[in-house]
Amino acid sequence: MSVGAPGFMAVYRREMRAWFTTPLAYIFVAAFAFAAPAFAFNIGRFFDTNRADLAPLFAYLPWLLMILMPALAMRAWAEERDRGTLEVLLSLPVSLSSVALAKFAAAWTVAGGALIATFPMWVAVNFLGQPDNLAIAIAYFGAFLLAGSYLAVGQALSAASGSQVTAFVLSALAALLLTMAGLPLVTDTLSGSAPAFLVEAIAYASALERFSAFERGVVGLPDVVYFLSVIALGVSAGGLLIGTSREAGR
After folding, report:
1. What pTM was computed for the model?
2. Structure confidence by residue, pLDDT tens digits, 74-87
3. Which residues cross the membrane (predicted)?
4. pLDDT exceeds 60 at position 239
5. Closest to 40 (Cα-Cα) out of 121, 148, 133
6. CB of 157 within 8 A of CB of 171?
7. Which residue, 202, 210, 197, is CA-closest to 181?
8. How many CB atoms lie within 10 A of CB 248?
9. Whole-number Å distance between alpha carbons of 193 and 203
10. Are 244 and 96 in contact (CB under 8 A)?
11. How far is CA 119 from CA 133, 140, 206, in A?
12. How many whole angstroms separate alpha carbon 128 and alpha carbon 76?
């Protein structure tokens, strides 16, 4: 079993071809490029703020990613099972860790392309005024990390699921829980029945709370470590689950 860049790149190119030789990636990017501004203009009241920034976009971006990233992640392993290609993929002279990481990297690349598709809004605010472009860049960086976290969790659940539909539902639910963990609605509800340390731990795990720092243009090392840790755990869990199912003969 080969480990390292050659095996990773071989699977990465395979995954990218799978995305871009079909309409899937194009449809996803187009849907994201339409939905994100729609949220900012119609719900975030972009023009009513009278400010040259992208705060309305980033305020609703986590909720949009919460739905679209599971849709991107659900095919990672479940589709391989549906098509009967999982055994062929796992028989290649490539380590399972390289396969899992390459699958994640390819999906994350597509997610990055979707975020880039919203850059016309960034250009527009520069025509309308003088925004803090560094703060906007930091917010985009945070959105990229947030998208990666949802993707990693979604791909782990795809590895555990027997179908893409099940994977999508479970991933969307997990993303919802990860997003809402630190909201007052959740913490106030739990504070009456759960120990204080548990409530604090749940609030600490909130992806929305972590992303809010990036929205303010602040890059905090704990927040970066949080997102990278979720990504590492998700990718590792997906590979372990697939390895376990292979050993069990599934």
Report:
1. 0.87
2. 888 888 887 777 77
3. 56-78, 99-122, 134-153, 165-186, 224-243
4. yes
5. 121
6. yes
7. 202
8. 7
9. 15
10. no
11. 12, 10, 27
12. 41
Q: How far apart are CA 140 and CA 113, in angstroms?
A: 12
Residue whose tokens read 């605010």: 125
Mean pLDDT of the chain: 83
**Environment class of residue 6 by beta-carbon count within 10 Å: exposed (0-12), middle (13-18) or buried (19+)?**
exposed
**CA-angle at 182, arms to 166 and 198, nearest 5°:** 95
pLDDT at 1: 37
Please report which helix (H) or strand (E) contains residue 224, including its range: helix 221-247
CB neighbour class for 191 (10 Å; exposed up to 12, middle 13-18, buried from 19): middle
Measured CA to CA, the distance from residue 199 to residue 203 in angstroms comes to: 6
Chain segment 12-56, per-residue pLDDT in tens: 998 898 888 888 788 888 888 888 888 777 665 555 566 667 888
pLDDT at 141: 96
CA angle 27, 30, 31 (to 5 degrees): 80
Q: Which residues pair with 85 in a beta bridge?
A: none
- Cα–Cα dist 51/33, whole Å: 22
Q: Which amino acid is at 11?
A: V
Length of the chain in terms of residues written: 250
**Residues 6 or more apart in contact with residue 20 via CB below 8 angstroms:** 26
CA–CA dist 177, 166 (Å, integer) = 17
Tokens of 97: 């860790």
Over residues 156-187, the pLDDT tens digits come to 998 888 788 888 999 999 998 888 876 666 66
Instruction: Name residues whose C-beta falls within 8 Å of residue 162's C-beta, 6 or more positions apart in sequence.
Output: 78, 81
